[in-house]
Write a structure and sequence with these properties.
The protein is mostly beta strands. It contains one helix and ten strands; from the N terminus they run E-E-E-E-E-E-E-H-E-E-E. Strand 2 and strand 3 form a beta hairpin. The longest helix is centred in the middle third of the chain and has 8 residues.
Length: 158
């Protein structure tokens, strides 16, 4: 069988998420890398697929590696949509920055988002019948880290 290049997937914007955060909990340098936990305190969800809010109580578990130039992110939190659906979010991300920009991000100093590679792969779980389509597709997103939070734009891969 000869491989053929298939058409590239298209993306449809689902929603944007603005996550607010508390100061990081610094675990420190471990054998795996620099470990941090960023508490999630709330936020807003808004976009063509619906509106809602980020519930407090989640966290972003970070591992900073490659001489502080890569952040492997594992955020877990819940969002509540205006129709009452509660959706669990597990968002795996990669953020790549220069050492200088990475230090600024970790110290809460603004950086130019165009200098940072920040992409994510969110997965969603819910029991709400109107949101079952979240279980039947893949999503990708792009992010920006701000001193007081994270902005994400989430896209459905068609």
């Amino acid at each position: 069988m000869t491989p053929n290049t298939l058409p590239k997937p298209e993306l449809t914007h689902v929603f944007d998420v603005a996550v607010t955060i508390a100061p990081p909990i610094e675990i420190g340098q471990t054998p795996a890398g620099r470990r941090r936990i960023i508490p999630i305190t709330g936020g807003v969800v808004d976009g063509p697929s619906g509106k809602g809010r980020v519930l407090a109580g989640g966290a972003d578990y970070q591992l900073i590696v490659a001489q502080d130039t890569q952040a492997h992110l594992d955020a877990r939190y819940a969002i509540e949509m205006v129709d009452g659906a509660v959706i669990f979010v597990e968002n795996i991300a990669l953020r790549v920055a220069s050492q200088a920009d990475s230090r600024k991000i970790m110290e809460g100093i603004p950086v130019d988002p165009s200098d940072i590679y920040f992409r994510c792969q969110p997965r969603f779980e819910t029991a709400h019948p109107d949101w079952q389509w979240l279980h039947e597709t893949q999503f990708i997103g792009t992010g920006v880290r701000r001193p007081d939070g994270v902005l994400l734009s989430i896209y459905k891969v068609l």
